[in-house]
Design goal:
Layout: H1 5-10, H2 12-18, E1 42-49, H3 62-65, H4 82-85, E2 95-100, H5 108-113, H6 116-123, E3 129-133, H7 150-166, E4 170-174, E5 183-184, E6 187-188, H8 193-206, E7 209-211, H9 213-224, H10 226-232, H11 257-277
Parallel strand pairs: 1-2, 1-3, 3-4, 4-7
Antiparallel strand pairs: 5-6
């Protein structure tokens, strides 16, 4: 899929408004909308991405239908309490609001086509921030409804960067968080080689700050050990424990709350370093 950045820009609002894709049952669940702040004393941090950073508590009947699944974006707000904001060398506004627009199953392309990106673009203000993490679904060649080849993936990232800067806000690229495989000799290998590399290349080309979450999470999970992260961080669940998963589940991509918190901490640590340099 080869895409021209110029062509994407030209049809930005048209496609954001009218193009839709078949929705799965989970996608049809009603979402609570976190409205961006218009207060000059509040900085908005928008999150664009897939299921690994989705706030599942925004879906209706979360406890019965989803719990304990949670993305790192769903717990990111908790890191921006008053005391933590005081530790930023180059402070943000007095308050910070995290606006998580991530959604499960989305790639750079479908996030754009469904209008989720348009919501961010239209609500961006100068000095806001946008963290962009995609890759899990872009690389899914067998799922043609979401797949984007590396060239197309890079073009959509360029578009997002351009649009954020156009509004006087600051983009940060976040490489896709690691899956819980492949493991070899106690070390977690790279499950996102091509797309993490592509995002880093775009970041360097566009002079955008990058949080290499792919690398950071692999190193962190390796330190914790396969058995621990498998049962504590990822959605590998026993039978009969959770209402939403009566038969249990084996899932080495999505996170339980403890996994979401651990990954959010990694992102927060790097975000703080980036902000403090500005």
């Amino acid at each position: 899929m080869k895409i021209s950045f110029k062509n994407i820009s030209t049809v930005f609002f048209i496609t954001g408004s009218v193009m839709t894709f078949a929705q799965t049952e989970q996608d049809n669940q009603k979402e609570k909308i976190v409205k961006p702040s218009t207060d000059k004393n509040t900085t908005n941090i928008f999150l664009a991405g897939d299921s690994t950073l989705t706030d599942y508590t925004l879906e209706s009947n979360y406890q019965e239908k989803r719990y304990p699944q949670q993305g790192w974006g769903g717990v990111f707000q908790k890191f921006f309490v008053t005391d933590s904001l005081k530790t930023f060398k180059s402070p943000l506004a007095k308050n910070v609001l995290v606006v998580d627009k991530a959604k499960g199953g989305r790639s750079t392309r479908t996030f754009f086509q469904e209008g989720r990106w348009r919501y961010i673009f239209e609500n961006l203000r100068p000095k806001d921030w946008v963290l962009i993490q995609f890759g899990h679904n872009d690389e899914s060649e067998k799922k043609v409804d979401r797949y984007v080849d590396v060239a197309g993936y890079k073009e959509y990232l360029r578009l997002y960067i351009h649009q954020v800067r156009e509004k006087g806000a600051t983009p940060i690229l976040v490489t896709p968080v690691s899956r819980n495989y492949p493991w070899k000799d106690g070390v977690l290998g790279d499950s996102h080689v091509d797309y993490a590399k592509a995002m880093i290349e775009v970041g360097q080309e566009q002079k955008v700050d990058i949080i290499d979450l792919n690398k950071l999470s692999r190193e962190f999970f390796t330190q914790k050990g396969k058995d621990f992260v498998t049962t504590t961080y990822f959605m590998n669940l026993p039978e009969g424990k959770f209402t939403a998963y009566p038969n249990g589940q084996k899932d080495d991509t999505h996170f339980q709350p403890e996994g979401a918190k651990a990954v959010a901490q990694l992102v927060y640590n790097e975000f703080k370093k980036i902000v403090s340099k500005k």
